[in-house]
Amino acid sequence: MHQFIDRNTQEVKSEILYGDKIIRFLYSRARERSSLIYKMLNSSRLCSILGFFYYDSFIGSKITRTKAFMDKLGIDYTECLDPPKLLNTPRKIFERKIRYWDIRPMPEGEDCVVAPADSKVHVGSSIQTRLFYIKDKFFQYKELIGANKGKWIKAFRGGDFAVFRLTPDKYHYNHMPVSGVVRDFYSIDGGYQSCHPEALVTLCTPYSKNRRFITIIDTDVKGGTHIGLVAMIEVAALLIGDVIQCYSETRYDSPQKIIPNMFLKKGQPKSLFRPGSSTVILLFQRDMVAFSPDIIENNSRDDVISVFSRALGIPIVETEVKVRSLIGKASKKIISS
What number of CA atoms fall less than 13 Å from residue 5's CA on the CB side? Predict the structure, then answer.
């Protein structure tokens, strides 16, 4: 069982862990010893084949029984731009667009930092012993950013982080958490390991070993969030062979690739995960962000059954957040949830 906190109601809820049995089987210690199977599972080619079979093929569509699949996932039809009859394959369901400008309100205030995705989040600080242990389990800092990126390694050393875990039922567009100018954009090749909770606690720092896309944003510019540098790291995973960069200034219109020196506006669509589930990690410079109190409090609750807490022996509890909702502010400001 894996539980989380519903931010709107503060209720403890249980997550349906899709593929739980097969993930446990594939990522057990016994299976890790089988290097051939392990390499095959995390190869780009097999990832693409499995993705096509499940999400694009006629057989895959029949297996999932599209409408029943949507109902099982709990997708709200009224949020979607397209009518349900047009969402007739699993891929179209996962890559659906929503009326975010109406149904995902964004807090006012230049200094606000917002959630990049409909997801479950936990936050931490690289300088706190307990939370450093969390970071060290889920990702190796230098490896995550890129060992040859000394400038950015130095900039974010000792800073804070937030890990946003998407699940298959979620809206799969990522939105900008801050406003600012792109100072660097690059990708790092890697595997396609699952970001399922059971896999995360079994594997060694999967976030920094998977293929990932890093955007460095300078927010200390005109129209920016004024929170220093922010790294937005989009992590590929099992069945997700790519992350499509498709920033849109207005709704989903005229999507653009991310390039240095372009200005990105907070709350706007930035990228799209291919179907499945994956993760966005935000890195902040030291003492620049103050996370929302409710997220911090939920992080350490000991009355919630979490796969992470059980595996690591310390409370690590996620809060479910909506894209564009407040997760923090510039540290010199007073946060109001």
Answer: 21
| In contact, 294 and 185? CB cutoff 8 Å | no
Q: Answer whether 0.70 is exceeded by the pTM.
A: yes
Residue 173 lies in a domain: yes
Cα dihedral value 295, 296, 298, 299, nearest 10: 110
**Total Cβ atoms within 10 A of residue 220:** 13
- The DSSP 8-state label assigned to residue 54 in this structure reads I
Report the alpha-carbon angle 282-79-122, nearest 5.
25
The band of 59, judged by pLDDT with boundaries at 50, 70 and 90, is very low
The answer to whether residue 215 scores a pLDDT higher than 70 is yes
Residues 6 or more apart in contact with residue 204 via CB below 8 angstroms: none
The total domain count for the chain is 1
Cα(first)–Cα(last) distance of the chain, in Å? 29
Decide if 189 is inside a domain.
yes
- The alpha carbons of the chain give a radius of gyration, in whole angstroms, of 19
Question: Model confidence over 73-123: pLDDT tens digits?
Answer: 678 888 999 988 888 777 888 899 999 999 999 999 999 999 999 999 999
Parent domain of 48: 3-7+17-330
Q: How far apart are CA 165 and CA 207, in angstroms?
A: 11
Residue 12 located in a structural domain: no
Residue 205, domain member (yes or no): yes
